[in-house]
Each structure stands twice: as C-alpha cells, then as structure tokens.
Amino acid sequence: MNAINFVKIARRMTDVDRCQGTPMNHQYSVTEHGAQAAVMYIGFCENTETPVDAELLSFILMHDILEVFTGDVLYPAKHLAPEAWEQIEDAVIADTHRRYDVDLRPYCDATIAKSAESARIWKLCDTTELWCNCADELSQGNNTTDLLNILNVCYSIIMAENEEYFTTIVY
C-alpha cells in the first residue's frame, strides 16, 4: 500500500461535511465524526468492561473514508438499496486501489469487530455520536424537518438494540 497516498486521502476526510444537505448551524466533517465516535467507543468499552480493540478503534476513526469519493450518503439512501450501495462501495474501493495503490477495504468492513459485543458497541457509538451532534444543533435552535428526521432515525436505531444504555434520552 502507498502510505503517502493513504495519508493524502485520509486528510481529505476533513473536507467532507457530515449530513450533507441538512441545514446545520455548525458543519462538522467525517473526520470529526470518526474521532468523536472513537472516543465514545473507548468510553463505552470501559463502561461495559469490554476490552478496547486497537484494530476496531482504527476502523472507527477511518470508517467513513470512502466518503472522500462519494460524499456523506445519508442512512435512508444507503439502506433503501443496500446491494446497490455495496456495489458502489466495491467500485470505489477497486478504483482507489488501482489509481492510488491504496486498499480501503479494511476501513469499510464492519465485520472487523472480533465479538458481537464489540460490533454492537461500535455501531452504538457511530449512531450516538450523530444523535449527539444533532441534539446540539436542536439546542441551538435548529429545528428543521431534516434534522428532526435524523434525530428520530438515530433514536430508533439506538433504542432498538441498546435501550439499557439510553432509557433517559429526551429531545
């Protein structure tokens, strides 16, 4: 792998806005999202006495690296046609490998988690971090329909599998 090209691509993550198309008071990048989700992962691991997996932590930091090439595609679009989205990801990964000699697959495959508990905690952190950012936006007066929809989707995902952690969330 070409380490210089990898760093160049990774640095471009700071240029990709999270929640593209949703009016926000404070735009934040997929780099910020990955860093905040990684910090949450460490905290949740400590809270649940689950060992921090360094490989998974690296994945969490970089899990949105493909968005350098695709932009931040919102949850409904990715999950409306998951097979089509997987084909797009595969094509971007192959093209990036061919053009830059960089393999992004390790940062796109959530099966890297070594246990079901680790995978659950990582996904919880990914979704919770987005919920927290949107809740901050709401507290600053942003009550657009798009933002409220994101909050509701995040809340539903979080509560579906993690109710014991978040029984007191109110927004």
Q: Would you mind describing this structure in some detail?
A:
The chain is mainly alpha-helical and 171 residues long. Helix content is 63%, strand content 0%. Helix 7 packs antiparallel against helix 8. The longest helix is centred in the C-terminal third of the chain and has 24 residues, at 116-139. The protein is globular and about 45 Å long. The mean pLDDT is 88.
Give the gist of this structure.
With 171 residues, the protein is mainly α. The chain is built from eight helices and no strands. Helix 2 (30-48) runs antiparallel to helix 3 (54-62) and helix 7 (116-139) packs antiparallel against helix 8 (145-162).
Distance between the termini: 45 Å
Low-confidence stretches: none
The class by helix and strand makeup works out as mainly alpha
**Rg from Cα:** 16 Å
What is the N-to-C order of secondary-structure elements (H for helix, E for strand)? HHHHHHHH
Number of helices: 8
The count of β-strands is: 0
Strand content: under 5%
Features:
171 residues; mainly alpha; 63% helix; globular
Helices and strands in order:
Elements lengths: L2 H9 L18 H19 L5 H9 L4 H4 L4 H6 L1 H19 L15 H24 L5 H18 L9
